[in-house]
Design a protein that fits this description.
The structure is a single chain. By secondary structure, the chain is mainly alpha-helical. The chain has 15 helices and 3 strands. Helix 2 packs across helix 3, helix 3 packs across helix 6 and helix 7 crosses helix 11.
Length: 349
Amino acid sequence: MADLVLHAAPRTREEVIRFGNGDKERAKTYLLALYGFLSSKPENTRRAYQRGIREFFELWNWKSPEQIGVAEAAYYKRWLKNRELSDSTICLRLAACQSYFEFLLKPTEATGLALITSNPFRLVTRKDCTPTPYGRSTPTEWNDFEKILKSIPDDIAGKRDRAMLMFFANTGRRRAEVANLKVRDLNLTSDPKTYLAKVKGGKLQTYELSDVCYQAILDYWISANRLTTLSANSAVFGPVNQSGGNGARDPHRCLTVDQVAKILKRNAARAGLDPRKFKLHSLRHMFAHDMDASGARLQDIQTALGHSSPNTTTIYTGKLRGPAAVGVQKQIDAIRKKASKQAEAAIDD
């Protein structure tokens, strides 16, 4: 129990007493409820909810749940907005608190009665901060992406960064799917070469690995002397130290999603571009738009992105497509080469 509630519960004796409205037994009941609530959540959701719940009650000096009203809940929302957090973060924190209070409304086994009489967060609207399924991401322009690639240094870290960013641009994968990619997920002996990705919902899907991605990954592995030490559980894209060597860092462990996101922003800044305008999800949008422009069917784009619903896919493409085109990947490459030539011509003029 201690591990589950450690990051969400009061820590001092005074906080515990306030949490129970002066009643230690009631405080214990609330803590048991918190344990029951968090233990029912998946690990990632639990971590996010722990932070939101603790943040809210710390804001109100561990006022007891029964003393919390709509005013406190509404103020928390304003407080989050004033911190200029993203809409998705604000919604997640509010959802954490609303879910916990909803849990407290359920009758307990001991008494058959709920611990509180109302959920104040039900009256706090989230319509003005609820993000679209994919936020405000827009496609990265291929010409800008090329600038980023060309600015990447040719050391080991640079080869890792280039291979990873090319993988994003040519597969449309989510950042967690790339960060957690293992050697065992690659089939480099098949024709064509393939990789496995765990898409949303935990489902494993097989996708084609383009030759340009394979060559970039191989170049990185050779430069980092990883070929002789790779195992099935090795990360495809591992950490390197600032000097370019592997150093004391384990090159076989996976990068975090935050580390992966920083790679794009760092290299965008190196290319003289505004890093605030570049997100990994924008590369996913770029891939979807280029696939759409190549003439791919909506169903093909949906499958490539790992969407469960075609409605989500239309957020990326903006329209439905007709019959499938032959050689989609080649047409995507042709579209991008054309964009590069147009950019070069504009510079020459």
